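Risk register update: the risk of archive-format incompatibility is retired. Evidence:
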Amino acid sequence: MSEKIVVVALGHRALGTTLPEQKVATKAAAKAIADLVEEGAKVVISHSNGPQIGMIHTAMNEFGKTHPDYTFAPMSVCSAMSQGYIGYDLQNAIRSEFISRGIYKPVATILTQTVIDPYDDAFADPEKIIGRVLTEAEEEKGNFVTRLADGGYRRIVAAPKPQRIVELETIRALLNADQVVIAAGGGGIPVLEQGINLHGASAIIEKDLAAGLLAEELNADTLLILTSVENVSLNHGQVNEQKLGSITVADAKKYIEENQFASGSMLPKIEAGISFIEKGEGRST
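Archived output:
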């Protein structure tokens, strides 16, 4: 039986956007994970958290407005909370699917921190929309915002590149102990290193880049990024759209230069795949 390591990155479509949707969606994701395990793979799962962290951020800050004695929740704390409750649903769904198939393998969720560079260019050009609609007064408090068509505002935060996964050795130890591991959810909690301390940052890390880094550091055989579309396409949405099958790294780089892949959407998936393949032998994505 194969001992290949597979890192699976679940997109937000694989998790749903509400609590009830997530309960249903994780059951479907669990079937795919169980299939991989039955084939003999060691599996590490990363996942999106976009809708979930937005919900948590909105809820915690609305609570802070209503109850002045409580502090507002920073992005890093919201990220940690999203990892916890997504991991809770995922690991329970996977556990149930395993038992139904006669697979007796532990599943663990690791609260994961990801170190970022404080000088990353992304901080000068934030792009990730987060949280509720803001008023003009709140916009004037120094938030990075984008203006909506109806005149409201939404907060935007930076998406810096992941540099290092803090809990890597914990993830590796669990994987070596033949457990299925859920880690680096939402790209990990973004943290800055300051001496011996780690401080949470107001940012969101691209989960595909974090999954790619995790796969590289674990020397995985396969990086599997699950998306809501059947194929990556050239000239997406145009009359001359062309669906892609297997492509080379050289082709992928050429398509990036041609701006074929949207930033914050398909581009980080392609970049993660390129980096993963180039930094090891016999890898696939």
